[in-house]
Amino acid sequence: MDLPGPFPVGRYARKLEEEMRRRARVSLIGEVTGLSRSKAQAYFELRDAEGAVPCTIWLNELEKLALPEQGLRDGTEVVIAGGPDYYRGSAQASPSFSFRATHIRLAGEGDLLARLDALRKQLKAEGLFELQKQLVRPLLPRTIGVVTAEAGAARRDLLAGLERRGWRGTVVWAFAPVQDRHAAPAIAAAMQGLAAQPQVEAIVVTRGGGSLADLWAFCDETLCRTVAMLRVPVISAVGHERDSTLIDDVAAVACSTPTHAAEAAVPLDCLAARGALDRSVVSLRRAADGAVGARTPHLVALARGPARALRRERLALNQKTREIRAASERGITERLGFQRRLASVVLERAVRRASGADMERRREGLRRAEVALRAHEPERTLERGYALVEARDGTAVTSAGDATAAERVRLRFSDGSVGARIEEDN
Amino acid sequence: MTDKPESYEVAIERLEQIIDRLDSGQAGLRETLDLCREGRELVSYCAAELDAVGEGLKELKLDELAAKLASSAES
User: Fold this and answer.
1) Residue B13 lies in a domain
2) Chain CA centroid to CA A249, Å
């Protein structure tokens, strides 16, 4: 090692002490953390998002500053004046570095606004204000997450706002302190916890009004960077209308009151939506009825057309039927008359045929027929000495074989009949 | 049955389109009846969504919800 020295450490420590105390005196702004007191001094760290320095102040100097009661406490934003100090220690005492404050005052609105302005410019330049605004906010979420103080009025106001909207879904509360040095990290953790729940569709972060110092947790750089990166839309309602915190800039929507936050979290007025839905039902029904109704007269006219034609045709048919019936009745009468006339002519001719020579010739023919018929009657034959052999049932027995088989027969003569037995001729 | 709308806003936007179209009087009979049927389905969906957030406010704490989800994931 080609370096100067080695020097005695005590001499080096004294040089360092002198060096530090020669450095320019400045004022710093930051948050007080880890405040403690010894008999002679007060110790604390002054901190912001980027770093911290250990600070000391002599108690007698602190008392002269006449800060308000409890003015210097953890979480307070202060402006301190002083410069770096190095205590070189001794053979027994340990060395230490601190920023030795000679003056402390509570940070005023102006100091905070100046810091806020610088932070705002930085985050905006990084594009962090736009990320949340690009997220889609559901019109009608079923579940919303809320980060607020458990005992705050903001909680009650938010619920009242939701109730007025007619929304009675699910609220997931993530309670967190909203005003001390633990507030910003606790709020950030609560929001990350809510965003990790799949059913949470929007997150409201809210607290009541206060001074910028009271609301300072909502200007915390780390918190605001966390909010900007969440994938769930965040609705901020921190402080009153005139208050503007950094979280308002990074959130999807910034509202002036918890009531407005309720409206932003549930954009749909459920009561009005029900009314609109009822009107839609009426419109649909009217359209459906109208579509049919408007066409009904035409359809009815079309439907009537065939009916009218049918009626006309039916009337015509009826007329024809009547005419035909009348005609047929007339025809029958005429035909009857004709037939009667025809019959009388035929009858007349028959009567004429039956009378006179014609009649005599017919009588002669009849007599000859009678004589011929009589010649063939069996009685005539019996009169000539023949007998008729009849079986018992009256049928004629016309052969010897039949007579033998019948055994008993009747012999009919012209003047009567007698029974006879057939005997074998030996 | 048409597909279930992806969200209330999508459903209500489509319903407004349908009613505008019907009010224009330009839809024929078949289209009118189809639109009315689709509109009635959308109204049913929207009414069900409103019912889902109309029955009664439920309040949960984040740690309760997280515990519930963890236990349901285990079972």
Assistant:
1) yes
2) 37
* A295 contacts B61? CB cut-off 8 A: no
- DSSP reduced 3-state for A133: helix
Per-residue model confidence as pLDDT tens digits over A93-140: 999 999 999 999 988 877 888 888 899 999 999 999 999 999 999 999
Beta strands in A3-75 (DSSP E): 26-37, 41-48, 51-58
Q: What is the CA radius of gyration of chain B?
A: 19
Which pLDDT score is estimated for A204? Answer: 96
User: Which amino acid type is present at position A206?
Assistant: T
- Cβ neighbours of B23 in A, within 8 Å: 283, 287
Query: Model confidence over A320-342: pLDDT tens digits?
Result: 888 888 888 887 788 888 888 88
At residue B9's C-alpha, the angle toward residues B21 and A165, to 5°, is 115
| pLDDT confidence of residue A128 | 95
Q: Which two tokens stand for residue A188?
A: 């950030």
pLDDT value at B14 more than 90 = yes
Looking at CA atoms only, how far is residue B75 from chain A in angstroms?
18
Q: Does B2 map to a domain?
A: no
Contacts by residues A91-95 (CB-CB < 8 Å, ≥ 24 positions apart):
A95/A13
Let me know: does A159 contact A169? Beta carbons within 8 Å. no
Tokens of A379: 């009685």
pLDDT at A112: 80
Domain count of the fold of chain B: 1
Q: Which residues of B touch A167 (CB under 8 A)?
A: 53-54
B33 close contact with A: CB closer than 8 A: yes
Mean pLDDT of B2-26: 88
Q: What is the pLDDT of residue A356?
A: 61
Bridge partners of residue B58, in order along the sequence: A170
DSSP assignment of A305-369, as one string? HHHHHHHHHHHHHHHHHHHHHHHHHHHHHHHHHHHHHHHHHHHHHHHHHHSTHHHHHHHHHHHHH
Taking 70 as the threshold, does the pLDDT of residue B24 lie above it? yes
Residue B51 lies in a domain: yes
| Parts of chain A with a pLDDT under 50 | none
Range of the domain at B18: 8-74
Q: Could you give the CA distance from residue A192 to residue B27 in angstroms, rounded to a whole number?
A: 50
Say whether the ipTM exceeds 0.85: no
* C-alpha span between A335 and A354 (Å, rounded): 28
Burial class (CB in 10 A: 0-12, 13-18, 19+), A71: middle
Asked whether residue B46 is domain-assigned, the answer is yes
Which residue from B minimizes the CA distance to A291? Answer: B29
